[in-house]
Amino acid sequence: MKVMSGNKKVGTPWSNLKLPRFELHMLLNAETWAGQFHLDFSNNYELYPLVGGQPATRPAINSLRITCDLIPQWPINLSGNPNHVWIDQRVNGVTNPPVTLLDIFASIHRVLQTPILHSDWGNVAKNERYAISKAYQKRYKAAENPEEERLKGVKRIDFLKGKVYFNGLLMDWENGVMKLVMGSQANSSLSQGLSNPPSMAETQSREKVLKKISDWLTETQATHATA
Known about the structure:
Shape: globular
Structural class: alpha+beta
Low-confidence stretches: 1-16, 188-206
Distance between the termini: 38 Å
Helix content: 25-40%
InterPro entries: DUF6699
Organism: Tetrapyrgos nigripes
Largest sheet: 4 strands, mixed
Number of helices: 5
Domain DUF6699: 52-169
Pfam family, one: DUF6699
Number of domains: 1
Protein name: DUF6699 domain-containing protein
Strand content: 15-25%
Strand order of the largest sheet: 6-5-8-7
C-alpha cells in the first residue's frame, strides 16, 4: 500500500505483500453484497461468536489487513480467533484458526470505537473539524446513555463524518489489503427481492441486528449444503 504524504507516495511494510487469491464471503463482498443486514458501527454493541463463525474467505486465510480510504491512518490488522470458529479448520495445511465474519466485524467495530488522541485532532484540517464534531454530537445524542457517551469524547468513527454503515469490502490485490466501504446509509436499495429485509429502525437494537446476521448466516449455510 502507498500512503499519501503531501504529494508524495510513501511505502509501507505492506507495500510488497501479495495475498493468495481467494473469494470473499457473500456477506462481505461489496461488489455483490445485497444489503442483507444493516450494521451501524456507531452503535456501541457487542458482537458474539455464534453469529459469525463462518470463514470470511474461500479458501480460508488466517490473517489480513483492512484499510479505509476515508481514514487511512488507522489500518486494521487481524488474525483468526479460535473462539470465533464454528469447527476446527486447517489453513495452508496447518491448524490455524481462519479469519471469520465475526473477526472482521468485531475488529472493524473495535478500531472505529477507539477514542482519538490529542495528536489525532491536531492533525485534522480546520475546515474538517466542524463535520467531525457534528458527527460526534449526532452519535452521542443517539446513544442509550448520551452523557456517558459524550464524556468518552470523539472517536475514530466520527472521522467518517456520518458514513457509519458497513457497505462491504473490496479486494485491492495490488497492495494486498481489503478496502472497507462505508456509507451514510445502509444499502437498503439493494435489498429488493430479499425475504423480509431488515428495516432501518432495527439497527438501533443490538439483539435484532445480531439475529438478522445469524439468520442470514444460517440461510446461507443451508443453501450451500443443498447445492
